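Issue: copy button drops trailing tokens. Both records pasted manually instead:
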Amino acid sequence: MFLRKTTAVLATVAALSIGVVGTAQAARTLTYNLSGAAQYTADIDAGAKVWNDNVQNVKLVKTTSTRANIIIVADDGWPRAQTTSLGNGRVWMGKQAIDQGYNKTRIAAHELGHILGLPDIKPGPCSSLMSGASAGVPCTNPVPNAAEKSRVERNFAGTAVVRTATFEDAA
């Protein structure tokens, strides 16, 4: 009897650990620091809200801590993101794209998408958030499509690995 109970417990633990049995896993919380974001704080908050409204396995929360997962700064260059690991890195809100008329919330959501493990999809349609600048200035869609949402959900379900990378979103 003891052996049967032990085997059942081990089988349940194994099933839970590999995702065979559904679990109510808490969302992973990533913090972002806006202290260097200058005039783009509302746009970054809006971009974070887009992700929070569209995925369940990860939540972006603003902090003033210098130990945030994501550091966001403004500069005069083109927007870009550099990941150090999945959910960690730096985002630059580049003034160059904003001056050309690109939508600030879309830029913020796109760059945060890189930190969440998504690559650029270029060229791409406006319906793809990760198409970035290739969708053109008229594109203001800040919402990830179903495939992008699904990939982020998988990334934060506990199995993804993202290598260090820099994503430069040049036109």
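Record 2 (pasted manually too):
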Amino acid sequence: MRPIALGLVLVSCLGACGAVAAGRSQPVPSPDKTAFDDIQPLRKGRVVILDGTTLWFPDRGERFHLDGLWTCAWPQWALDWSTEEKSLTPAPVPCGALAKSWLKRAVRQAIVVCQPIFRVGPADLSGRCSVDHRDLGLEMLRVGWARLATQSDPDPGYVQAELDARSARYGLWRIQVLDMVDQRTKSRDRGADLPISRRKCMLERRGQAVAAHDACGARTR
């Protein structure tokens, strides 16, 4: 019985992946948000980690986003093409779970302090958070499990942390993130449909999923 992971791996052949592993960071649309007119009181307390950039303050019933950052959603997967020497298929990587785990590790059971900057929705805020004076957004960028969501006036420290992580190929910068819609609707095992020659062609063009798909043959339905 083929492992479930193979089905996720071969989704890449459909050409619906975000090529995060190579090139510079591209702007990612941020959710609609409204800036506060005045300085908001700090949110302090223990939190529950929802994903790699989102925290929940249970005592206040508020969700808080690390502003200006993007990472994989919790159920999202990616492909690691660095395994090409050992296999004809890249290794599946649970990038959402890994990003969440790293933020959880950074927070542990400590008190989190957040400064609201934007309102995203009812009981839904966005801003900067820290633990023991350590910026959590900076930490996630430093290890590569988050990247800048926009390129409009980013914090210089954030920009440098992302550049360093990208140069070292940490976290998101060494994998190819699968599109969530395609992951839900088309993640089935297509290994039997693909000839060995086409799989080798895909590997040679790893990191450029759409270009690889176009060059390596028609889409298999």
